[in-house]
Every structure is written in C-alpha cells, then in structure tokens.
UniProtKB/TrEMBL annotation:
The keyword Nucleotidyltransferase does not apply. Residues 30-268 form the Cytochrome b/b6 N-terminal region profile domain. This is Cytochrome bc complex cytochrome b subunit. Keywords: Membrane, Transmembrane, Transmembrane helix. One of its GO terms (biological process) is respiratory electron transport chain. It holds the Pfam family Cytochrome_B. One of its GO terms (molecular function) is oxidoreductase activity.
Length: 268
C-alpha cells in the first residue's frame, strides 16, 4: 500500500486529453506544480470573487435605470469635481513633501533684528532655491484649487440630491473631509510665520478661548498656550505634515471606495 497522498484531480490525464499547444501545456504544467505547493489558484479565485462583489453597484444609477446616457450630458462636468479635488490634493502632497526638505519650523531668529528662521527659509525657497518659487506656487495654488473644488463638489452633491438614501454615510464623510481641508489650509497658512500667519494664529487662539467650558483646554492643545510661540508653530507643523496627510488620504480612499460600490448618483 502506497503512503503517497492521492491527488484530488488527475491533472496529468486531464492535460493529455486536451488539445494544447506547447506553450499552453508548459504554462498549465508550471501552474499545477506551483499550485500544489502554494495554492495560488485558491487565492486567485478569492480575488476574482472580491472583484465581482466590489463591482456590484447598489442601487442602480438613474442613467442606467432609465437609459438617460444622452439626456444629462450638461451635468457631466460637475461630476468631475471630486476627481479634480483629489488630483489637486495629490499635487499639493507631492509639492509639499519637496518643500519639507528646506523648511524649518522655528520662530527664533538667526541674529538680532532678523526675521524668524521659518520665514527666512521661506524667503530662501522663494528667492535663492532653483525652481523654489515655482514649487511653492504650485503647492499654494493646488491647495487653493483643492479647497474650491471640494466646496463646489459638496454643492453639486447637495443640489443634485446625491446625499440621500443610501448615500448618507458618504455625505457625512464628505463633511468630515471638507472640514479637514479647512484645517489643512489653516495649519499651512501659519507655517511661513509672517505677519499674516501671526495674526491668523492670534485669531485662532481667540476663537478657541471663546468656546464655552473647554476653550482654554482647546487653546493649549492646538496652540500650545494663550499666546503664539514656538509651541504653536510646532503643533501646526506636526498637524500639517505628519497627522492630516495620513488621515485625509485614508478617508479619501474610503470615500472613493464607497462611490465605487454604490455608483454615481445622477440628479433626482
């Protein structure tokens, strides 16, 4: 009696019964050999099942349900605002990462009567660094375009009724994303540490202190105290560079994933 494990499928006879070309026979023989050891076919079937499940869109879009492919063509430009804001976010992230090689979040000055180190680094980027002016301009304009596109995207979703059942969760997720976009813009606005940044930060401190009960705690958490200091710039830098990019990227991926599953909602 042989102790060799019996093969569930007679692959050898199956291959011989098929009229295969040498290339096909070689490929299938290699696939069978690898599958016996690593079970890759099982994983491929699992991926195939996940692919087809993820492409089941519920509910069916209005365009598909009522065959309106050529009826709402004038709306199509408005349905690119989400992609446009995502593209602007990617450009801002790449340009911001490059700027991070030269920026220093420090409020101290290099000498008496000189500007802060943070502002001096911004001046170096704008005046002395090759393509620095272009790089910072790309970062600034992509951030502004992203903010405008997100705002217009939310307006389109609201006025076309795309926030209604069953898309309420994605609407709430969009509200969180536009709020984080505002925080992104505000934290980046303070990083140059010039007069505009200083007084914008002072307004933020006063607004935090005006919150009932927890105002002082919020001011200390976000700004490092009741007046602007090195702690303020350090917090804005960490928020802008290390915290928000990971959170926003994860939420954007989730947001797009839900749209992929549910489908695009045409005007109600």
């Amino acid at each position: 009696m042989s102790l060799e494990k019996k093969d569930e499928y007679d692959h050898k006879n199956w291959l011989e019964s098929k009229d295969l070309t040498p290339v096909e026979a070689t490929f299938l023989t290699a696939l069978i050999w690898v599958d016996k050891r690593l079970r890759i076919v099982d994983y491929l079937e699992l991926l195939e099942s996940l692919y087809y499940r993820s492409n089941l869109q519920m509910p069916k879009s209005h365009t598909e349900q009522y065959d309106l492919d050529n009826k709402f063509w004038y709306w199509y430009a408005l349905y690119t605002l989400g992609f446009f804001s995502t593209l602007a976010y990617v450009v801002a992230a790449i340009s911001g990462a490059l700027l991070g090689f030269y920026y220093v979040p420090a409020v101290g000055s290099a000498g008496p009567g000189e500007a802060s180190i943070a502002y001096s680094q911004i001046a170096f980027i704008m005046r002395d660094l090759q393509f620095g002016f272009m790089l910072r301009s790309i970062h600034r304009w992509s951030a502004q375009v992203m903010t405008a596109a997100v705002f217009l995207h939310m307006l389109r979703v609201y006025f076309t009724g795309a926030y209604k059942e069953p898309r309420e969760l994605n609407w709430l997720l969009g509200i969180v994303l536009i709020s984080l976009t505002m925080v992104f813009g505000y934290s980046g606005y303070l990083l140059p540490w010039d007069q505009l940044a200083f007084w914008a930060g002072q307004i933020g401190v006063e607004m935090s202190l005006s919150i009932p009960l927890i105002g002082e705690w919020v001011a200390q958490l976000l700004f490092g105290g009741f007046s602007l200091s090195q702690a303020t710039l350090q917090r804005m830098y960490i928020l802008h560079v290390f915290l928000l990019p990971f959170v926003v990227t994860a939420l954007i991926a989730l947001h797009i994933g839900i749209v992929w599953v549910q489908g695009i909602a045409e005007p109600h």
